Structures are given as C-alpha cells and as structure tokens.
Amino acid sequence: MTYQWDFGPVWRNLDGLAIGLFGTLQLTAACLALAVPLGLLLAIFRLSGYRVLSGLALVYIDFFRTAASLVLIFWFFFAFPMLVNLDFTAFTAAFLAIGLQGAAYFAEVFRGGITSIGRGQWEAARAIGMGDAVAMRYIILPQAVRRMLPVFFTRATLMLKTTTLASAIAYTDIVYVAFRVSSDTYRPIETFTVTGVIFFILIFTLSRFAAFLERRLAVAT
C-alpha cells in the first residue's frame, strides 16, 4: 500500500517544534560556553612543563573522550545529584555532561593548533621581552585560531548533534518535542522528516559560516 504523506498535522505543531529548537540552541550555546574556555585551559595545562598539571589534564581528557555521552548524561541526571544531595534539572545534567565532555575534545583542538605554531614564534616573542602568557595571548593563539578554525566548527557541529541525546532525560529539545508531536499526530515520518530538514539547515548554515570565516582570515593573514 502506498503511503499517504500528510504534513498538515506537523505544520500545526510548528510552534512546539520552534520551542524545542530554542531548547536545542540554548543547550548548545551553554555547553560551548563551558567547553571552549575549559578546553583552552586544559590544553595549556597539557602543554605546561608542570607534570602534575599536565598529568591531571591528560587523565581528564582521556576519561571524557572515552566515555559514552548518553551514559554521562544519565549519570549526571540520576547519580550525581544523589552524591551531592542536590536536585538537577534535565538542562543542568545535560549541560554538565556534554559541556565537560566537549571540553576534552576542544582541549585536543587547541593543543593541536598551538603545537602547530613553530618554536621560532615563541623565540621571537621572548626576544622582544614577552612572557609566555603574553606571547600565548597575542602571538600564538591568534595564529593557532586560524589553523584550527575548521576543526573547531566541526566540534561545535558535533556538540549540536550530541545535545539531541538530552531528550532521553526529557529535556525539551527539538527531538523530544518531535517524539511528542509524532505520538500525538501519528505522523512520525513527516515529523522526523521536518526535524531532519531543520537540522540540515542549522548544520549547513554553520558550515557555510565557518567557510566564510576561514576565507576572511586567510585574506587577513
């Protein structure tokens, strides 16, 4: 029997999908706000000459990179609140799980970008009296950012996709709303087709923006 497509029920629930989309973007932005600066700090610790800091950063990075994202989300939602005697919302649990894991991946992105800069740049900075911290801020990082920009946006895109796992703990993201809409309308094919198109538009736009920035930075170099 030929399937009869009907997007009408989905269009009537677009306001709910829009709320879910806002939830997805809100969680992604929060996770990036945690992962990026923490990842940079971990990369600096990893590259430092202090064995304790470098070792702790390595343990953190290896642990979170090998952990399953969904397991981390469940752990921060069900287990961690019991240990600290606090009630966590679905947003808080997903934010901690995805943000802390994302920091481990961004640490490797930053480390790769920083180590790609030749030692001559460090030596030149020291020759004009710059300390390592000042050289990192004004000489090394600006050059490293240009080189790691494509990988940075790839990681950001993967983080956006990972936030969909938060629907497993009933966080109101677009996937969670899509499940509810498909259940209410009995139109799962149409509902998740529309959801897939929304994700395609988001990720395609992000990739085009990344390519635009890469071109602009290449011209400015």
UniProtKB/TrEMBL annotation:
TM spans (from-to): 20-45, 57-78, 90-110, 156-179, 191-213
One function term, GO molecular function aspect: transmembrane transporter activity
GO cellular component terms listed in the entry, alphabetical order: ATP-binding cassette (ABC) transporter complex
GO process terms (BP): amino acid transport
Membrane topology: Multi-pass membrane protein
Entries under InterPro entries matching the protein: AA_ABC_transptr_permease_3TM, ArtM/GltK/GlnP/TcyL/YhdX-like, MetI-like, MetI-like_sf
Keyword Transmembrane: yes
Gene3D superfamilies: MetI-like (1.10.3720.10)
CDD domains, per database record: TM_PBP2 (cd06261)
Record keyword Transmembrane present: yes
Localization of this protein: Cell inner membrane; Cell membrane
Record keywords, A-Z: Amino-acid transport, Cell membrane, Membrane, Transmembrane, Transmembrane helix, Transport
Domain ABC transmembrane type-1, chain residue ranges per copy: 21-210
Function text: Part of the binding-protein-dependent transport system for glutamine; probably responsible for the translocation of the substrate across the membrane.
Annotated PANTHER family: GLUTAMINE TRANSPORT SYSTEM PERMEASE PROTEIN GLNP, MEMBRANE COMPONENT OF AMINO ACID ABC TRANSPORTER
Similarity comment: Belongs to the binding-protein-dependent transport system permease family. HisMQ subfamily.
Name assigned to this protein: Amino acid ABC transporter permease
Organism: Phreatobacter stygius
